[in-house]
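New to this. Please check this fold:
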Amino acid sequence: MLGGEGAAELEYLNVCIANYVFDPAIASPEELLDRYHALTGWASAMRDGGARVTVVQHFRLDASLDRSGVDYLFVRDSSPLRGKPLHVVPRMNRSIVALRPDIVHVNGMRLAIPGARLRRRLPDAALIVQDHAGRPPNNALYRTLNRRGLACMNAVTFPDAEQAEPWLRAGVLPRRVPVHAVMPCSSEMALRLRSEARKQTGMAGRPLCLWV
């Protein structure tokens, strides 16, 4: 995904991935990274392209660790981000600003609200928000806040540009904000012995076809 010229463009960039939400059932930073394949895969791909990558992750406790050359900074903040349209996460944003990133990658269209709070403190950084199968909010206040947040973004990404249409029609995504078609990371996959796979799945057809 980031090979060739794309990799060269990433070299020397300081990239921060901001993940403002997490599953409260996850007990430890290590468990979170084991479960969030798309997050770690995306970060590793940019690292492989030559960028310096730091993931700032909202969590139940403060922690930091390195995995495969990517720095993961876990920040305990004041808001659990559940039912709170203002998304007050001051400690997370202070941690992001302290990194002085060239690019801040925000996960989730609705999370453009706390992401936009970075604009005044990082005037020269590129703020990019990635769609995660979200829908425009129905609440009038939330729609207004989301519109203002997205207006601060330099770009938004969807797996396909057509998926931006509901946001554009609702007036939540300003039409002046560039939309890019970027496919998110998949989970990691590895081939297994056919006999082992048949035993594990309990499927024994000949031929055997998996349609995804």
